[in-house]
Amino acid sequence: MPRRTDIESVLVIGSGPIVIGQACEFDYSGTQACRVLREEGFRVILVNSNPATIMTDPEFADATYIEPITPEYVEKVIEKERPNALLATLGGQTALNAAIALHDSGVLEKYGVELIGASVDAIQRGENRESFKQIVEKLGAETARSVICHTLDDVMGAADELGYPLVVRPSFTMGGVGSGMAYDETDLRRIAGAGLHASPTTEVLIEESILGWKEYELEVMRDKADNVVIICSIENVDPMGIHTGDSVTVAPAMTLTDREYQVMRDLSIGIIREVGVDTGGCNIQFAVNPVDGRLIVIEMNPRVSRSSALASKATGFPIAKIAAKVAIGYTLDEIPNDITQQTPASFEPVLDYVVVKVPRFAFEKFPAADATLTTHMKSVGEAMAIGRNYTEALQKALRSLEKPEARFSWAGDPSTDLESLLEAIKTPQDGRLRIIMDAIRAGATPEQIFENTRIDPWFVDQMYLIHETALQVAAAPRLTPEILRLAKRHGFSDLQLAEIRSLTEDVVRGVRQALGIRPVYKTVDTCAAEFAATTPYHYSSYDEESEVAPRETPAVLILGSGPNRIGQGIEFDYSCVHASMALRDAGYCTIMVNCNPETVSTDYDTSDRLYFEPLTCEDVLEIVYAEMQAGPVAGVIVQLGGQTPLGLAQRLADAGVPIVGTSPAAIHLAEERGAFGKVLADAGLPAPKHGTALSPAEAHGVAEEIGFPVLVRPSYVLGGRGMEIVYSADELSAALERLGGGDAFEHPVLIDRFLDDAVEIDVDGLFDGNELFLGGVMEHIEEAGVHSGDSSCALPPITLGNADIEKIRQSTEAIARGVGVQGLLNVQYALAGDVLYVLEANPRASRTVPFVSKATATPLAKAAARVMLGATIAELRAEGMLPAKGDGGTLPPNAPIAVKEAVMPFNRFRTIDGRSVDTVLGPEMRSTGEVMGFDDTFGIAFAKSQAGASQPLPGSGKVFVSVANRDKRHMIFPVKRLADLGFQIYATEGTADVLRRNGVEAVTVRKSSQGPGPNGEPTIVQMVQDGELNLIVNTPIGITQGGSPRLDGYEIRSAAVARNIPCITTVQGLAAAVQGIEAQQSGGIGVRSLQDWVPRILGV
Amino acid sequence: MSSQPALLVLEDGRSFAGTSYGATGETFGEAVFTTGMTGYQETLTDPSYHRQIVTQTAPHIGNTGVNDEDDESNKIWVAGYVVRDPARVPSNWRATRSLDDQLKSQGIVGISGIDTRALTRHLRERGAMRAGISTSVLDPAELLTKVLEQPAMAGSDLASQVTTADAYVVPAEGEKRFTVVALDLGIKAMTPKRMAERGIEVHVLPATATLEEVLAVNPDGIFMSNGPGDPETTEHPTTLLKELLQRGKPYFGICFGNQVFGRALGLGTFKLKYGHRGINQPVLDRATGKVEITAQNHGFAVDAPLEGTIETPYGLAEVSHVSLNDNVVEGLKLTGHDGRVLAFSVQYHPEAAAGPHDSAYLFDRFIELMEGRA
C-alpha cells in the first residue's frame, strides 16, 4: 500500500525542553519523522519550544513554531496552519498529552485534524491501567494484582487488600513521575498523595510488589496491514524496583530461552493489536519471577519512547523513521532496510554483539536529594556501548560515563569490609556495579551477590569473569600478547590495566601497540552479517577482522559530548550535528564519535561514518589510527562537544592527532587564570578582582583583600560545579569545607569579587584569526550570580544600548585575538555601573549556540566548523552561510525578542525524609534543559518562555510575596503593578508592612514557623499545599548551596514545587513576570513560524 | 571452562584458532551459520543440522543451560558447534545442566572464542562449504587435507540417517478429529505436537515407508517433514508423494517436505549460496499480502517461476510464499481445476521451536484442507 494521498500537511509535536525522563531521544525521533514526511512531499508543521533541537532547524519543516507545547498554543498553530493530520507519537508524553487534550476539547474535530500513528482510543486503552489490564487478561496473561484508586481512602483500602510493600503508579505521567515503592502507610500516604496530584486524571494504581523479578522490554512495530515485528528485546540487569531509565540494561535479552521469549513476543503482538495502535512503534514491559518463570505484563507505551531510541541505536533499525513511514500509509515490506538496502524493513533485527546502557546521575548537584534508585526516574543521561560480548560492552559503557568512580578498579584495597559492602549493595544506587565488584574483590560469593541484589546469576558470573581476568593480569609475570588480548576481550582499558600493573596508561598503550594489539571495528548491520551492510556504523572490539572501508575523501572526525549531564547536553550535540552537515556539504567525509544513544549525532544517517565509542583518550586514539589507515584525515574537531572532547585535546595533540580550530594551547590559555589575566591586561579589559588559593588560610586572605561578597569555585569546571557566593568570612569557611580538600587543596580554588547588582551578559562569537562575527549578545534577566545555564536571558539584549554592544564587540575581539581563537568563543561579562567586566571566556561552542542560531537565523556552529577547517568569515559571507553584512550585534530594531528560560528538575528529587529539594537558583547549574519564547516584545516572549517551561504565568488570582531585605526596594513597583492588574497580594509580616507603607494592599499570612492562627488561619505553607495561590515570589536570604533546609523560604518553595505553582526566586524575575502577565492580559498573543520571522531578523 | 586450543579450517583454506568447547576430538561437516538469538537447544537437536558445523552469530550461547523440555529430538545432531562466548554458568529455573556438559556427554566437538562474525561474513561471501574442527590437529594445512577428503553436502542423501527406525504414534490431544501420516525425514518434536493440539493423531513413519504402509494407516492427510541433505537425492519420498497426490490425498509439507513436493510437481531444486538459517526471516503470503516472520533452516530451495501457475498432472501449482529478503520460493500450493486447494507446503518452519509463532495458522489450514474447506 503506497503512501496516503488524502492528506497533504502534517503537524508534528515535539517534546519540549529536556527534562529527566524526556531527553534528546525525542529530538532524534522527531528529526527522523520530519525528514521522512518532507521527503514524502508533505507540508510539515512543527511545534516545539526547545531551540536546542535539530528538528527546530528551519530546514526540517515547512513551518517551525518555537512555541509552548500547551493545548492553547498548539490550537493557535492549528488555527493558522490547518494541518490535515497530527503526528503526536514521536514527541514523548508531552506531545501525546497535548494531542489528547486537543482531542478532548474538540479542537481536532473542529479543524478536521486526523490523529495519525495512534488513535485517541488506542492511546487511552494503552495508558489507562484498567483497560490495559483487561486486554492483558483477555490474552490469557497476567498483570500484577492491583487496584485503581482516585482518592487516598481508596489507596488505604487497596493496601489492606494487597499488603505491603506496594508500588504506586500514577496514570498518564512520563518517566515514572509520582511513582514509588511504599513499605508502610506513611510512605504510601506521601507517595500516593503526590501521585494523585501528578496524574492529569487524578488516578493512581496500587500494585503488588514484584521487586527483585527479572525485567524485560520489547520494542514492537506495526503497520496498517497488521504486520507486526519485534525490533529489539532489552533486559534490565537491575531487577524490578528500579525505573528502567535508571537501570543498567542490555540488548538483546541474555537470560531467556526461546520458549520464554516467544511467549513475550506473542503477548506483545497481541497487545499492540488489542490496544489498537494501528501504525507505529510501542514498547511493552514484562517482569519474570526467576524462581518459577511466572510472567507479568507491566505496561505499554503506545508511542515511541526513550527505549525506542536505545533500541534503534542498538539494532540499526530506525524506529522513529519507520514509525513515520507506516503512519503515512506504507507497509513494512514496502520500506527498504537502510542498512542492507536489499532487504525490507519487515523483519526482526538480529545482533551479533551486545549492547549495554548505563545511566548517568547528577546527585552531586542535589546533595540533599535521596540518591536511592526507585521506580521514579532520576538519571539525567545515559551512555551506551557496543561490544562483541557482555563484559566488553559493560566495561566500555562504564568508561563512557566519564566518571572515574564508575569503572571497575583493582587499585588498592576494596573501599571497605565485605559485610559493609554486602549491606551497601542491597540498596539500588548510582555506581552499584562498582560496589558489587568491590564486594567480589573482598571475597563475596556469587550467592551472596545474588541474595543481596537479585541480579541474575549469569550477570553476576560475568562480574566474576571480569574480576578473574583482572587477577590474571595482576598475576602475569609480564604483559604478554595473550594476557593483553584476554583483558581487552573483556573490555579492560589501558588505564585499568595500568592501575593493576602499577604502570602508566601510556606505557601500557605503548606495549600493547608495539605488540600490534589494536581493536578492530565491526559494523552494526541489523542482520548479524547475513547481508552486506552499506552503512558504516561501527563499534570497536578486540576481535580478528576489521570492517573499516578505505576511502579517498579527506575525513574530519567530530568528537561528541558523551552522556547528557547537567551543564552538557543536547546543545553540544546540536553543534556537532551542524558541523557534520556543514563539512559534508563542503566535501569532507564526516566521522562522528559519540556514545550517547539519545542523540541525533549517533543516528547513522547524520555523518558519513559513525563510531559508537567511549570518548576516552584511548578509544579516540584508536579510531584516529584506524581512520588514518583508511585514508587522509583532515583533522579532529574537539571544540563543539563541550568539556568532554576539550578535556582530551591536549593529550590527543601530544599523540600527534591533528586538532583543527583553536589549538589546545589556546584552550589552556583561556582556562588558566594567570595567563588569561595577562591577555585581559594586555587588552586593557577589566576583570573583577580575583585571586587563587591553595589553602583555607590563603582563601581568607584573598577574600579579605578583594572584599565580600566573593564567588568561590574550584578551577576547571563546567556547569559551575561547587561554585558559591559568600557574603562573610563564616560563609567562606563553610563553603571551603563543602568543597573538601582539608587544609591544602589539590586543585587551586578561585576567588572572585562578586559584583552585586550587575547585569550579566553572555556573548557567542566566531573568530577566524582576523575577523570577529558577533553571533549574539544575551542579557541575563537574573542578576550576576545565577549560573548562566540556569538564568533566563533575552536576545537582542533588552536594556543595552549600541554603545554597550560596541564595547562588547571590541572586548570580545580583543579576547579572541589574545587567546588565539579559531572558531567559536563564549565570553561572559558583567556590566556594573558603566564598567564592562570580563568574567570568563571559553574558546569553544557554548550551551547557547543553538539558541543564538535560532534567534539570529544564522547557523553559527556550521560556520564555526568551516572556520576551523580554514574558511574565513568573509568567504562564508560570500557563500551565503553567514549574512552578507552585519551580525548578531547589529540586528534590525524591529527584530523579535527571544527569551531563553531554563527548566529545572526539582520535582524529580526528594530528600531522604521525603520533602522536595530547594529550588533556589545559584552559581551552580542545575537545569536540565531550556525553552525559547519568541515574539515582538519582551513581555510576550517572556510569557511564552514561562508557558513553555511548564510554569505558565497566571492571568489573575493570588500572589504571595516574601523577599529578603535587600530585595524589598526593588519589589515594590512590580508588586504594585500586579495589584493594579487585579491580583490579590499576600505577604508575610515584614514584606506586607513594606507594601502597605507604599500603598499596596496586602493580606498578612502566617509563616510556617508561627503555626496556624488561633482561629485556624492557615500558614503560608498550608495555603501553598492547598493550592490556594497562583504565583509565589520568594527570594532567599543570601544565596547558598541548594538543599540546605535552614533557609527560611525553603518550605514555601518546596511546597510550590510539589503543587507545581510558579515560583519566582529573584526580583528581576518578578519584573519580567509582571511584563509577561501584562502582555497576556492585553490579549491577542499570536504564534508565528521561524520561517516567517527570518526576513525580519535578517532585515531583508 | 576449557583452555585447550582448537582449530577450525574451511575448505578454501581459511582457518580460525580458538578454544575447545564441548567434547574434544575432531569433526567435519558443512559450515553454516544461524542468526537466531534464542533457542540454541532447539537448534542443536534439529535433525536438519545433521552433518553441519553450525556457527551461532549470537555471541553468548549457553546462558540458559539445557532443560528437559526444549529438545526437538532425542539427540544433538550438529556435527560441530562454533560459538564466541560460551556461558560459564547456566541461569534459568528450568535448566537442569549446562550446555557444555551436554555437548561433552553427546560427544559434540566445538570451538569457541573465534571471530564468528568474520567466519559468517566469509561464508556469506564464499558460500557454505566443508569444514573441520579439531582439538588434536592444530596445523591448518594438515586439517585442511582432511577437510578436503570429506563429501560435499550437494548430492548427499541424509534423510535415511536421521529418520526414526520404527513407526510411532503421537496421539491427538482431546478429541481425535483426523489421522495423519507424517513421513519422518528428520522431523522435529514440535511438529506432531502442533498437529496433536489440533485433534490430529499423528502416525510418524520412517522415511522408507512404502505406499502400502502409508495407506494401511488410512490417513486423512499426508505430511512430510523437514530434514537434512540434498533433495535431489531423495527418490523414494518423491515417488511416494506422487502416488499419494495421484490418489487425491491432502498434503502438507515443511522444509524438506516443500522440496519433495516441488520435485513431485516436476520442479527442480538447487543449493543456495549460504542458505536461510534464523528465526527472523520475512516471508510474504502472496494470497493475503501479509508478512510472516518465520523460522528457517534450509540450504536448498525449489526452483519455480514466481508468477503464474504451472500445469501438473495433479492440478495447477503456484508459488504461494516468497522470501522478502531474496525472493526465494518459500511455499507452494496445488489447486484443482475447480479452484479447491489440494495440497500445500512451506519452506520455513511453522512449528517454530525455535522461532516465532506467526505461521502456526498453517496447521489450521491443513485441517481445513482435510475438511475439504481450503
UniProtKB/TrEMBL annotation, chain A:
<feature type="binding site">
    <location>
        <position position="840"/>
    </location>
    <ligand>
        <name>Mg(2+) 3</name>
    </ligand>
</feature>
<keyword id="KW-0547">Nucleotide-binding</keyword>
<dbReference type="InterPro" id="IPR006275">
    <property type="entry name" value="CPSase_lsu"/>
</dbReference>
<keyword id="KW-0028">Amino-acid biosynthesis</keyword>
<dbReference type="Pfam" id="PF25596">
    <property type="entry name" value="CPSase_L_D1"/>
</dbReference>
<keyword id="KW-0460">Magnesium</keyword>
<feature type="region of interest" description="Carboxyphosphate synthetic domain">
    <location>
        <begin position="1"/>
        <end position="402"/>
    </location>
</feature>
<keyword id="KW-0665">Pyrimidine biosynthesis</keyword>
<feature type="binding site">
    <location>
        <position position="713"/>
    </location>
    <ligand>
        <name>ATP 2</name>
    </ligand>
</feature>
<dbReference type="GO" id="GO:0006541">
    <property type="term" value="P:glutamine metabolic process"/>
</dbReference>
<dbReference type="InterPro" id="IPR005483">
    <property type="entry name" value="CPSase_dom"/>
</dbReference>
<comment type="subunit">
    <text>Composed of two chains; the small (or glutamine) chain promotes the hydrolysis of glutamine to ammonia, which is used by the large (or ammonia) chain to synthesize carbamoyl phosphate. Tetramer of heterodimers (alpha,beta)4.</text>
</comment>
<dbReference type="InterPro" id="IPR033937">
    <property type="entry name" value="MGS_CPS_CarB"/>
</dbReference>
<feature type="binding site">
    <location>
        <position position="129"/>
    </location>
    <ligand>
        <name>ATP 1</name>
    </ligand>
</feature>
<feature type="binding site">
    <location>
        <position position="828"/>
    </location>
    <ligand>
        <name>Mn(2+) 3</name>
    </ligand>
</feature>
<dbReference type="GO" id="GO:0004088">
    <property type="term" value="F:carbamoyl-phosphate synthase (glutamine-hydrolyzing) activity"/>
</dbReference>
<feature type="domain" description="ATP-grasp">
    <location>
        <begin position="677"/>
        <end position="869"/>
    </location>
</feature>
<dbReference type="GO" id="GO:0005737">
    <property type="term" value="C:cytoplasm"/>
</dbReference>
<dbReference type="InterPro" id="IPR058047">
    <property type="entry name" value="CPSase_preATP-grasp"/>
</dbReference>
<feature type="binding site">
    <location>
        <position position="753"/>
    </location>
    <ligand>
        <name>ATP 2</name>
    </ligand>
</feature>
<feature type="binding site">
    <location>
        <position position="840"/>
    </location>
    <ligand>
        <name>Mg(2+) 4</name>
    </ligand>
</feature>
<feature type="binding site">
    <location>
        <position position="787"/>
    </location>
    <ligand>
        <name>ATP 2</name>
    </ligand>
</feature>
From TrEMBL, chain B:
<dbReference type="InterPro" id="IPR017926">
    <property type="entry name" value="GATASE"/>
</dbReference>
<keyword id="KW-0665">Pyrimidine biosynthesis</keyword>
<feature type="binding site">
    <location>
        <position position="48"/>
    </location>
    <ligand>
        <name>L-glutamine</name>
    </ligand>
</feature>
<comment type="pathway">
    <text>Pyrimidine metabolism; UMP biosynthesis via de novo pathway; (S)-dihydroorotate from bicarbonate: step 1/3.</text>
</comment>
<keyword id="KW-0067">ATP-binding</keyword>
<keyword id="KW-0436">Ligase</keyword>
<comment type="function">
    <text>Small subunit of the glutamine-dependent carbamoyl phosphate synthetase (CPSase). CPSase catalyzes the formation of carbamoyl phosphate from the ammonia moiety of glutamine, carbonate, and phosphate donated by ATP, constituting the first step of 2 biosynthetic pathways, one leading to arginine and/or urea and the other to pyrimidine nucleotides. The small subunit (glutamine amidotransferase) binds and cleaves glutamine to supply the large subunit with the substrate ammonia.</text>
</comment>
<dbReference type="InterPro" id="IPR035686">
    <property type="entry name" value="CPSase_GATase1"/>
</dbReference>
<dbReference type="GO" id="GO:0006526">
    <property type="term" value="P:L-arginine biosynthetic process"/>
</dbReference>
<comment type="subunit">
    <text>Composed of two chains; the small (or glutamine) chain promotes the hydrolysis of glutamine to ammonia, which is used by the large (or ammonia) chain to synthesize carbamoyl phosphate. Tetramer of heterodimers (alpha,beta)4.</text>
</comment>
<keyword id="KW-0547">Nucleotide-binding</keyword>
<dbReference type="Pfam" id="PF00117">
    <property type="entry name" value="GATase"/>
</dbReference>
<keyword id="KW-0315">Glutamine amidotransferase</keyword>
<feature type="binding site">
    <location>
        <position position="227"/>
    </location>
    <ligand>
        <name>L-glutamine</name>
    </ligand>
</feature>
<dbReference type="GO" id="GO:0006207">
    <property type="term" value="P:'de novo' pyrimidine nucleobase biosynthetic process"/>
</dbReference>
<feature type="active site">
    <location>
        <position position="349"/>
    </location>
</feature>
<dbReference type="Pfam" id="PF00988">
    <property type="entry name" value="CPSase_sm_chain"/>
</dbReference>
<dbReference type="GO" id="GO:0006541">
    <property type="term" value="P:glutamine metabolic process"/>
</dbReference>
<feature type="binding site">
    <location>
        <position position="297"/>
    </location>
    <ligand>
        <name>L-glutamine</name>
    </ligand>
</feature>
<keyword id="KW-0028">Amino-acid biosynthesis</keyword>
<comment type="pathway">
    <text>Amino-acid biosynthesis; L-arginine biosynthesis; carbamoyl phosphate from bicarbonate: step 1/1.</text>
</comment>
<dbReference type="GO" id="GO:0005524">
    <property type="term" value="F:ATP binding"/>
</dbReference>
